[in-house]
Amino acid sequence: MRAFRTRSRRWSLRLTLAFSSFVMCTSASAQWAGASRDTLTRDLFRDENTMQSLAVDAVNTLHAVWQRAITGGWRIFYARKPDGSGWAAPREVGDSSQFSNQSALAVDFTTGTPHIAYRANYASNDEIVVAKDSAGSWRRLRLTTNSTQDLAPTITVDSLGRVHVAWIGQD
Fold first, then answer.
1. pLDDT tens per residue, range 27-43
2. Is 0.85 topped by the overall pTM?
């Protein structure tokens, strides 16, 4: 009897997941009409890019951030694609003297300003940094300076243009 209940629960779970997937795919399929496919990186490093994030602003400019494997560690890169144009050349977000990863992207919808939160390594300790694009260069603010490991940041910009960041701090 116990084995039957276990099987029944598994079957019920699988059925629910299959139904949920079907419903989500069916309703989302209409949204993909006229979708385009694009490639951001066409270089030898494309296999070393991961953890990408994409956002769009009020004038339909696409903003992308990702991490790329560089000898000995990771670095964060950003590129934008104005509506009707190609991708701009990728720019490194973090300080090139340290490795960085786990990026999160938010764009101020009205101004189009990208804000990127990421984890950076300072003297074998991981800290959270926020970068803001300012006339083509990155203004960085280190949010944490402690002896614990800080990781997995997330970021958003509210309707008043205020930036909010959350992360995990390990004790």
1. 444 565 665 666 655 55
2. no
Cβ–Cβ contacts within 10 Å for residue 135, how many? 5
Beta bridge mates, 107: 114
Q: Which helix (H) or strand (E) holds 7?
A: helix 2-29
Which amino acid, one-letter code, is at 75? R
Rounded Cα distance between 101 and 77, Å, is: 10
Q: Which two tokens stand for residue 161?
A: 């243009």
The pair of structure tokens assigned to 47 is 């296999």
Q: How many residues does the chain have?
A: 171
Query: What is the CB neighbour count within 10 angstroms for residue 75?
Result: 21
Taking the C-alpha atoms of residue 171 and residue 165, their distance in angstroms, rounded to an integer, is 19
Residues near 113 by beta carbon (within 8 Å), at least 6 away in sequence: 107, 132, 133
Phi, psi of 84 (to 5 degrees): 80, 5
What the block records as the tokens of 101 is 């990863």
